[in-house]
Amino acid sequence: MAESFRRAGGLRERLHFQQRGDGDDGMGGPGMPGAGEFETVFTAAAGMKPRTGGEGVDAARLGGTQPFVVTVRNTTNTREITVAWQLVDARNEARIFAVVSPPADPDGKNQWLEFLATEGAPS
């Protein structure tokens, strides 16, 4: 039987959901939106199901990627997630995930959201 994250006991991960803050323009003017460091907006429970990984060549180096399907409850906060956000594992801050697809309602019941994230810091 396939593991289902669409139940309360299936959300076993704690993730910090982060987006970039305003950056300093260096001249004392107003900050540039989205040009600063990542800041935690909220923390939530999530289910993470690994998908088939892949390898890519970048600058003559072979690098592996591990995508995950992330399942979260449908809330006001989780509906704000975009591909500009990143996720950080609350239990191991070295694990950083880049959001690569916007959240979608998998069953049309407005209870859960699923999106794709890959392990590795976003660029």
UniProtKB/TrEMBL annotation:
<dbReference type="InterPro" id="IPR038666">
    <property type="entry name" value="SSP1_head-tail_sf"/>
</dbReference>
<feature type="compositionally biased region" description="Basic and acidic residues">
    <location>
        <begin position="1"/>
        <end position="23"/>
    </location>
</feature>
<dbReference type="Pfam" id="PF05521">
    <property type="entry name" value="Phage_HCP"/>
</dbReference>
<feature type="region of interest" description="Disordered">
    <location>
        <begin position="1"/>
        <end position="37"/>
    </location>
</feature>
<dbReference type="InterPro" id="IPR008767">
    <property type="entry name" value="Phage_SPP1_head-tail_adaptor"/>
</dbReference>
<protein>
    <recommendedName>
        <fullName>Head-tail adaptor protein</fullName>
    </recommendedName>
</protein>
